[in-house]
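Technical annex, item 7. During the second reporting period the consortium partners agreed on a shared format for inverse folding records so that results from different sites could be compared directly. Each record opens with the tokenized structure and is followed by the designed sequence. A conforming record, contributed by the partner at site C, is shown below for reference.
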């Protein structure tokens, strides 16, 4: 790595080398995980570069390739798995200058990759339209970071996750070669770069589908317990007369401990549903609830006292649930896992009996092939790393639950648990030296890797 030659080659492009700024831009929300917090805390880049347009991205990648400089792309830095942290130093490519709307069509919008998602939604609502999916960190997350590092978000109950082919129209990226190429990925090719942590190119522009804007109203419902909350949630999610943008459920004591400003509404010891409902469907929604006499509609944002200045309910959900828990109690962490819908009640009961308050359940509802399905993002009481690893193994072995481990930094260990051949082959084409976000794709150096319970590939001790 020849940083001096690299800097000379990109003369005129914004470079930051002050250590405290470089360290700040070398970090994301990896500290959600106590394991990653220990493993990754010392990793830092050498420089931060902030290209203002695609031409500068091309110059940066050509120079980095010529001088063997690793490049890690950073958006808003709101990822939770260390996706944007440079494991081998080099350059942090900050996309904060790659912002703005490039085109607005009747049913899609083209935006630069560093654009904050909230800004996209606000721009669209001025013309009566909206985006399909967004993370709970929408006020600071970039659209490129969401596509490269995320998998789902608010909107999933209607549209499914980001892997739904209907939810991303096009990804434009720059390759890292002697002469970087600009590629526009559409259709199935999108998934070569989506949720790939930026290991095979720098996204510069995203095209997203858009839809007519809906007037959404935040609501909260309480039920006697978590099982009844989820039974009701599935019923609401399947009601074709009620359009929802978000459907989330929380077991006690999550709401009463961590939703401080909603405590007057959520009560104590009850299951809670948080949802975003189309205003025109509120009569049908309330009619649906009449068939559930133990459920109580405790909060409607359109009827709440404006002086309370309550946050949007999506800021209680998704990984904001985790964030609020950690801010209240730093010993808490979380997991992400598929949850068996057909055996949901039995599994909830079994987990409660076996783990007690070591696991506090929280579900987000999405659609898989059109089926309303729970994805679990439980809060976990952390004691030791060994216990956390054993807990994950127990969930998979004894309860038949697939855990997407948020305490791993690589693509394969965190979610897929296998090599994605299409992403690996694409990386060979777009990053032949392996300099893009090195260390995040096991298959690059170990294509025959198989997961081993309790063992971290990069940090075996």
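Designed sequence (site C submission):
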């Amino acid at each position: 790595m020849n940083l001096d030659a690299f800097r000379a080659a990109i003369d005129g492009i914004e470079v930051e080398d002050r250590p405290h700024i470089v360290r700040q831009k070398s970090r994301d929300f990896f500290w959600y995980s106590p394991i990653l917090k220990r493993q990754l805390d010392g990793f830092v880049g050498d420089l931060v570069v902030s290209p203002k347009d695609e031409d500068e991205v091309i110059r940066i990648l050509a120079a980095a390739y010529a001088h063997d400089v690793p490049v890690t792309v950073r958006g808003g830095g709101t990822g939770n798995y260390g996706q944007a942290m440079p494991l081998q130093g080099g350059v942090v490519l900050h996309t904060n200058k790659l912002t703005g709307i490039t085109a607005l069509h009747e049913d899609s919008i083209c935006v630069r990759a560093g654009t904050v998602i909230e800004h996209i939604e606000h721009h669209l609502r001025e013309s009566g339209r909206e985006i399909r999916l967004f993370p709970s960190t929408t006020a600071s997350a970039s659209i490129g970071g969401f596509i490269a590092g995320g998998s789902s978000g608010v909107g999933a109950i209607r549209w499914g996750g980001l892997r739904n082919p209907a939810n991303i129209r096009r990804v434009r990226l720059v390759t890292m070669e002697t002469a970087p190429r600009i590629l526009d990925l559409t259709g199935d090719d999108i998934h070569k770069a989506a949720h790939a942590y930026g290991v095979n190119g720098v996204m510069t522009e995203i095209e997203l589908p858009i839809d007519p804007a809906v007037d959404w109203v935040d609501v909260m419902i309480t039920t006697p317990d978590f099982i009844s909350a989820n039974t009701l949630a599935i019923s609401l999610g399947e009601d074709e007369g009620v359009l929802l943008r978000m459907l989330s459920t929380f077991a006690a004591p999550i709401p009463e401990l961590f939703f401080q400003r909603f405590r007057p509404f959520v009560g104590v010891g009850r299951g809670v549903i948080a949802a975003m409902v189309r205003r025109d469907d509120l009569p049908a929604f309330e009619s649906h609830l009449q068939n559930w006499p133990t459920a109580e509609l405790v909060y409607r944002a359109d009827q709440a006292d404006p002086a309370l200045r309550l946050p949007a309910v999506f800021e209680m959900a998704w990984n904001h649930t985790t964030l609020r828990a950690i801010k209240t109690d730093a010993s808490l962490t979380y997991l992400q896992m598929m949850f068996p819908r057909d055996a949901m009640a039995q599994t909830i009961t079994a987990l409660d009996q076996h783990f007690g308050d070591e696991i506090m359940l929280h579900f987000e509802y999405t659609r898989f092939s059109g089926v309303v399905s729970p994805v679990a993002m439980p809060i976990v009481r952390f004691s030791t790393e060994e216990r956390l690893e054993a807990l994950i193994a127990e969930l998979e072995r004894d309860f038949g639950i697939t855990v997407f481990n948020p305490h791993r930094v690589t693509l394969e260990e965190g979610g897929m648990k296998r090599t994605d051949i299409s992403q690996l082959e694409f990386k060979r084409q777009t990053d032949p030296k392996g300099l893009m976000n090195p260390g995040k794709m096991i298959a690059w150096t170990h294509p025959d890797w198989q997961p081993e319970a309790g063992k971290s590939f990069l940090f075996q001790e």
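The longest strand covers residues 202-209. The radius of gyration is 22 Å. All partners now use this format for quarterly exchanges.
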